[in-house]
Amino acid sequence: MSDALLSAIDGDAAGRLMRHLEPDDALEAGILTPMAGTRVVRLFSLEEAERFLVVHDGSATDHGNMRATVNYVDPARLSQWIAEKFGDTELASALDELIATRKAYGFLVPDFKALLAERIGQCEELLATVSDGQA
Amino acid sequence: MVDNDTKDVVGQGISRRQFMTGVGGAGVGMILGGLVVKGFILPDEVVAMAASEGYLLIDTKKCAGCASCMMACSLTHHGETNMSLSRIQITQDPWGKFPDDIDIAVCRQCPYPSCVEACPTGAMHVDTETGVRTVDDTKCIGCERCVAACPFTPSRTLWNSVDQHAQKCDLCMNTPFWDQEGGPDGKRACEEVCPMGAIKFTRELPVQSEAGYEIDLRTGTAWDRLGFGGSPQSGGHLG
Amino acid sequence: MASKNGYCGKILKVDLTTGEFETIPTEKYEKWGGGHGIGSAIFFDLCEDKTVAGTDPKNVVTIMTSPLSGTLAPSVSGRCEVQGIGIQAYPTGWYTRSNFGGRFSTQLKFAGWDGIVLTGKSPKKVWLNIVNGDVKLEDATDLWGLNTRETQEEIWASVEPSKKDNDWVSLGVARDAGRTTQHPAVLTTGPNAELFGPMAALMHDAGNGAGQGGFGGVFASKNLKAVSVIGTGGVDIADPNALMEARLWSNDYSFAGHHDDPVEYVGLTSFACTPGKPLASVQEWSEGTQSRPQGCVGCVRNCRGRSDNGVGNESQCVDFFWYDVHDIKANGHVTAATPRAADAVQLAGVNAFAVEAAVLWIEQLYNAGIMGKGKEIHSDLPFDKFGSAEWAEAFIGCIVNQTDIGAELCKGISQAAKAWGRLEMDTASGILPLQEYGLPHHYDARTEVEWGYGSLIGERDINEHDFNWHVYWTPTINGLEGKETAVSAKRLSEIFAKKTVPYNDPMMVDYSDEGIYSEAMAKTVAWHRHYTRFFKQSIGFCDWAWADMVNPYGPDSEGMTPEGEIRFINAVTGKGMTFEEGMEIGRRIWNLDRAIWILQGRHRDVEKFAEYIYTTGAQPGTTTYEAPYTMPVFENNEWSYKSVAGRILDRDKCEEWKTRFFELEGWDPASGWPTRATLEELDLANVAEELEKAGKLGGSV
Asked: Using an 8 Å Cβ cutoff, are C87 and C53 in contact?
């Protein structure tokens, strides 16, 4: 997987990346229950996307229990959304690299989450500096 | 089956087991229908018949109504699968409300077996070795008094219209079509095949009510994890 | 006892036109095994014109048991096979099959019959009353408009008027007429089923349904409301001790042998599954609802349930799933709406699988503003309460009563789409998920190809999960959670190679982009069609337990197939059959069915999937209930489980695959028609003659 991970960004990018999107630009993700379809959840920001990616411990599907839920977002759509709505082509490419391994979704989630978290961390740091400067 | 007012007798030097199998009242001889019954005289001339050395317990809430027990019973006793020859009967209402959607009729090996008492020939008798209440079909004259005498519905004694004799649960003592040893010291076909583990053999006379045995083979077992209490409520997972 | 080695020896033939009964000796057809094999053979003999519509009185409907019905064989004893020309597939109602569980086949065997053949059309509305050897056509005027529960309860009271609760009842006046504690087993249509024929199922008890094919409509077209059977006889077993021993042996492979310590297995498996699962039957009730597992006669896994409020009893799988996704979307979790929706389809006798696809489509039409009050497709259904029991019940009601959108849907989904001018566009885009022959998309032909191909070369959604549990669900569920499967892809290929007698090719589970068009995949589909034709559709091994390929209780995760099936067949019948012999019978049956479809107009040129299969990749939420597919693939010289989500099929490569398949089966690749050589090899010379007369014999044009 990519290591840690992403290049530095500037303040303008940070502002763009941390914004809350309009409804039309939201990403459709879903609460997926095996055998009971996917309940749509809409994600409006990078932060929401990062929080939505949950690593499941898998115990809910022991004994053939199908009432487990998985927070699912189509990986390709996630990458495309990040590139188009936030303009972060580097982050999107990093996700694409992982997607190209064709590993199952659950194996991608920890790495996706780490990448998103890193980018968000960079943004928060930058924006804190900016607001300090303005204080 | 047990008179409540006789429980005062307990504590007078008689074991509970002896008491529980005692027959209150006069009129019942030790010799019934020509067969010597293994029994003993209790104080006050109460006559007891030996208790069965085993009983079947069924957790009626675990039963899935698959009737595998009925198939196994008739298969091992008669060489064919035939619900009308099964000595255990499962009846169901497909639209019934759990747990009343299934009724399970299994012989209780009554301490005071009305079927044995009713038999005029001793065909229905208490086995001398095991205490199991069972039919010697060579002696059965087909009067069906045993069928009528069973206090339960449906009668646990049934009429075999193929071979024309009465029959009932014998704890698999006589299963000519199964090589496995049966009876209280062996294996019982229904118990072996029940896929839910709803049937259990016991040597102890169970406590029972009018409704039957209240057996719970579920609580505290793996059954608790299998989801028979409804779907856990799930919500969103944001954050 | 008339029964011998599993067979009763007689099949009841009912000419509904004349009301006459006839006995067909089972011996005449015994080489076909039972169930589907016997049904197809009888159909071929009795239905002279195979091109008639399903509603034509000349359609011949068979209801067949197997020698294992009504025995202790595990998860096979309860099934019953229904066949005839169907009215669901579009545009051609292919000769098809459906199958249901419960206790009907058991009672039919106990009554002394191996099956029932229905021909003609009754001049009056009737129901068929079978009490042991006594058969009668009864007046069904008062039953015709009743729902499935009302019908059955009325019939019970009529057949056993003196029965009290669970007590014994005699079935005749003579002392030895036979006694039972059981209710009659009834197979019935819903209310006025001729009015929603293509969507109409046959129902038995609360939740056993023969849903596919529109057989409810076919029954109604014959003026037949129901068949009731009660018997007090038994099934003779060739070797009772062997049957008992086989059953106890199989306990080690199921919950039956592991009540106190069931295996914790992530994924789906068949014979080994815990009760009320895997399809969460017992969990389709809201939290706090107490329930029991419930199953068909002789079952070891008992996949259904009964609840403490009696709602949703005996329903399972799509009975719940047609609506639970919408309930969950609206309410966050399963509520009482889901079991009430299940009851709605069961009581009405409506095909749950068809309404599942229809509702996914309707939801999209509503969201797009195309359907609703005053919209292009007007509907007064309470869409503001979509996901509620009220909506579900109103929807089913409108189909049954031909009101609102039901006025078109009652004729079939494709027909409704055509009437609304949306058939081509919506099946092209895939928002109307009808994958082949107007039939609902079940598993994805783009990814799990053995399912799609089998459905396409056959005549209906195959609904046979022998590969599916292990090549789709298990790796996908584990994959969603980032877990390694208990059985690696390589081990899976080894297990399947061992069990797919006679092909035994590990590449049969390669679902890579290359593998899905390969000859190995042709073997997969051929094996699957032959196995299921005999073992499952003819002998009745239930799809929810068999084949037993991967079993977490088995040695090195291996299940009982191919040994298990044969042990039970031979214990009951004494035939000493081998698995290979069974597969060969299956191949014969498959070729016979192929011939019937060809007489109905089948040719490779009509064997095409809906457009979306070739153009659009799947997204979760658009096609039934799928999670994104993770499947075994052999790539770069190694086995692994990989995501194949979003794949589409290549049209040309599909055609090449069809050619490979036809060649493997000994059919003319130009047409897909069996050749004389193949048919004669299978002892089907008479079939070759009929095909030749119709100008449809492979290789002869």
From this structure: yes
Rounded CA separation C421/B233 (Å): 41
- DSSP string for residues in A33-83: -TTS-EEEEEE-SHHHHHHH-----SGGGGGG-----EEE--HHHHHHHHH
Pairing of strands C667-668, C638-643: unpaired
Q: What is the pLDDT of residue C332?
A: 78
Answer whether A30 sits within 8 Å of C620, measured CB to CB.
Answer: yes
User: What pLDDT score does B22 carry?
Assistant: 41
Least confident residue range of A2-11, C78-87, C675-684: A2-11
CA A52 to CA B101: how far, in whole Å? 44
- Lowest average pLDDT, out of C3-7, C280-284, C573-577, goes to C280-284
Strand C10-15 with B199-202, pairing: unpaired
Residue C195 CA, chain-centre distance (Å), reads 23
Verify whether the Cβ–Cβ distance C292 to B64 is below 8 Å: yes
A93–chain B Cβ distance below 8 A for any pair: no
On whether the CB atoms of residues C46 and C117 are closer than 8 A, the answer is yes
Closest among B52, B128, B65 to B99, alpha carbons compared: B65
Q: Which two tokens stand for residue C514?
A: 């290359």
Q: What is the pLDDT of residues A106-125, one digit of tens each?
A: 999 999 999 999 999 999 99
Q: Can you list the residues of chain B whose pLDDT is less than 50?
A: 1-43, 45, 235-239
Secondary structure string (H, E, C) spanning C40-56: HHHHHHHCCCCCCCCCC
User: How many beta carbons lie within 10 A of that of residue A109, not counting itself?
Assistant: 24
CB contact under 8 A, C321 and A67: no
**pLDDT for the residue numbered C279:** 60
In sequence order, the β-bridge partners of residue C102 are none
Q: Tell me if residue A112 falls in helix, strand or coil.
A: helix
C29: Cβ contacts below 8 Å, ≥ 6 apart: C11, C37, C38, C41, C42
CA nearest neighbour of C249 among C570, C564, C572: C564
Q: How far off is chain C from B195, nearest CA to CA, in Å?
A: 4
pLDDT confidence of residue B154: 95
Residues with Cβ within 8 Å of residue C655, at least 6 apart in sequence: none
pLDDT at B213: 66
C627-672 pLDDT tens trace: 889 999 999 999 999 999 889 999 999 999 999 999 999 999 999 9
- The widest CA-to-CA distance across chain C, in whole angstroms, is 75
State pTM to two decimals: 0.93
Q: How many residues does chain C have?
A: 701
Is the separation of the CB atoms in C617 and C648 below 8 Å? Answer: yes
How many residues does this entry show for chain A? 135
Asked if residues B201 and B173 have their Cβ atoms less than 8 Å apart, the reply is no
Whether residue A67 and residue C481 make contact (CB cut-off 8 A), yes or no, is: no
The distance from CA C58 to its chain's CA centroid, rounded to whole angstroms, is 24
- pLDDT attached to residue C325: 84
Nearest CA in chain A to B226: A63
pLDDT, residue C242, reads 98
Output the CA–CA distances (angstroms, integers) from residue C88 to C318, C402, C434, in the order listed: 17, 17, 12
Contacts of A3 (CB under 8 A, 6+ apart): none
CB contact at 8 A, B172 and B183 = yes
Q: To which H or E segment does residue B192 belong? A: helix B189-193
The bridge status of strand C20-25 relative to strand C10-15 is: antiparallel
Q: Please, where are the H alpha helices in C389-545?
A: 389-400, 406-409, 413-419, 423-429, 449-457, 468, 474-480, 489-499, 519-531
Cα separation, C459 vs C74, whole angstroms: 28
Is the per-residue pLDDT at C312 higher than 90?
A: yes
**How many CB pairs below 8 Å do chains A and C form together?**
126
